[in-house]
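User: Batch of two.

Assistant: Item 1 of 2:
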Amino acid sequence: MATKGVLRDRARGMRKQPSQAERALWDSLRANKLGAKFRRQHPVAPYIADFACVEARLIVEIDGRSHDNAEQVHYDEARTKALAESGWRVLRVRDDDVLAAPQTVIAKITQALHP
């Protein structure tokens, strides 16, 4: 298991090289634009969440095509279950949706913030 310092350093490195979808979604989430503070590449041991709203205990994960293979699907399900057991809700969105229909993704996130 990665230590807190290793996770923090890995998250910092990931923030420096966001995907196109991560960059686009961050523009919509940053600076409390949805009325909630999000953090990007936020360590939630033993994982790093793409985006996390600590106050709402909501994680938003952007999934690309690499998440389509069976092994990754199994890993994602186990990860989501572990995070849920720790009190987090996980919302998974496709990177294609972030780029093609950003307002739909923002609406899903807004709805998840205020269930």
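Item 2 of 2:
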Amino acid sequence: MLLTVTTTHHPASDLGHLLHKHPDRAQRFELTAGAAHVVYPEVTEDRCTAALLLEVDPVQLVRSARGPSGEGFSLGQYVNDRPYAASSLLAVALGKVFGSAMRGRCAARPELAETAIPLELHVPVLPCRGGPKFAERLFGPLGWTVSARPIALDPTFPEWGESRYVELRLTGTLRLSDALTQLYVLLPVFDDAKHYWVAEDEVDKLIRAGGTWLAAHPERELITARYLAHQRRFTSDALARLSEVDDRVADADEPSRGPGAADERLPSLAEQRRTAILAELRAARAARVVDLGCGEGNLLRALLAEPEFTEIVGVDVAAGALRTAEARLRLEHLPERQRGRIKLMQGSVTYTDDRLTGYDAIVLSEVVEHLDPARLPALAATVFGAARPATVIVTTPNAEYNARWETLPAGAKRHPDHRFEWTRAEFAAWADEVGAGHGYPHRLLPVGPADPELGAPTQLAVFTRNEGRS
């Protein structure tokens, strides 16, 4: 099986420094299942390509196997696609051969290791259970331009159709360490199989390699489940840990505070948002609270820590998110009295649900922007029309403030799954319309450090039911 890495960064020959492999030497590395070779088919100042060739010995692989035996037929251990189709075997070779590059270490060119450079990754044969569109789903959100060309079962007989393999070519401008770690994680995901048993240490490997890019990936549940061979307890643990990473990263890219600013750590925007929500719930004297669109349970954990919230309900449309929330909150280990205060339910923010009626408050924290605009009237009817709590709290990003994030490209949204992001005027107009239509006067509040021109990064609305209206 083969992987090539090409750059046109000038001088392109610096790729050898980044990979810690000299372009003038062919190198061989012994692995459990065979041997890996690194060669450079082309090296110029304008273009450089490194190739990782993995020779797999199927018999040795079977003799040393610690895990699944392969395909489901009698000779499946010996007759399979392992020698030529990229899989977890190639991922292991990546880790062994390019481990320093994956960690972003380069003593000779430390500044280059931290620089996004033009890259092209080519995998001639990749098992892709999900087809070419699946490759786009996984690599597209990471900033790659994806070409996944289906490979025919036999070019001589086109009527036989396409195989489950694709020729994958990725082009983009990324740090080399990010590119390699993404490939390391995603190769087993495409094959949806590993050549060894998945144990608890695989969770640590995933968190180390996935880091922040996986935490923010819209397909992180699918990626995590496949990477961990659908082992539920490992998957739940990994998603819980990724959720903590996502919570730190999503709001941690605060604009620079400038020279002379205090060095002490400021609360992240996520922490400030939760603090603001809790303050408004206390002010409303809410005891029975619904977190609608609770995700993996960040707000639920804060609510559970305060005894004045006597009944807490987390609702989310994604069963996987609820399982992660349950793991993060460690519900099975809570004392009986604490466990009785909280429950998790699967449900939608756009469908009337009798279970949501009768509560003091409903919180929609960073939820509305994940809906298609056409679904917003259904959300309003569900929350303000049917459930009708005394208080509704809504938070959403302020799109104007995005210009202050140095790491956010112009015009980009804060999260790949956001369908829209409102300006302050747009959010105020929506709140006016919803409040007037359902009898909920409201207040608008900023959350986070306010910019004199662009406002605060998060905007919060507190709706209070008009008691004179049924």
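The first strand starts at residue 2 and ends at 7.
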